Amino acid sequence: MQDGPRPVGFMGVQERKIEMLFLHPDYFRKGLGKIFVELAFRDLNVEYVDVNEQNPDAVKFYERMGFRTFHRDATDDQGNPFPILRMKK
């Protein structure tokens, strides 16, 4: 997503899950994250999202949208010690 020539955010989707969602901090709390997530579920058949447990703002964002953790991995997909929360509505 762009604001003129300036990129403000992007999302990565793979195998029915949101792998990543990033927004420029100037665009936090403006509804863009919600738009990305709604688009992913509506148009890309996403079923869940992986969230880095060490990012409490991201966890709260998804919880406010009605997501709940249904699985926790102690490491990320590459085996690094970054706990991942698998969340769905």
TrEMBL record:
InterPro entries: Acyl_CoA_acyltransferase, GNAT_dom. PROSITE patterns: GNAT. CDD domains: NAT_SF. The keyword Acyltransferase applies. Residues 1-89 form the N-acetyltransferase domain. Keywords: Acyltransferase, Transferase. The keyword Mitochondrion does not apply. GO terms for molecular function: acyltransferase activity, transferring groups other than amino-acyl groups. This is GNAT family N-acetyltransferase. It comes from Candidatus Cryptobacteroides faecigallinarum. The lineage of its organism: Bacteria, Pseudomonadati, Bacteroidota, Bacteroidia, Bacteroidales.
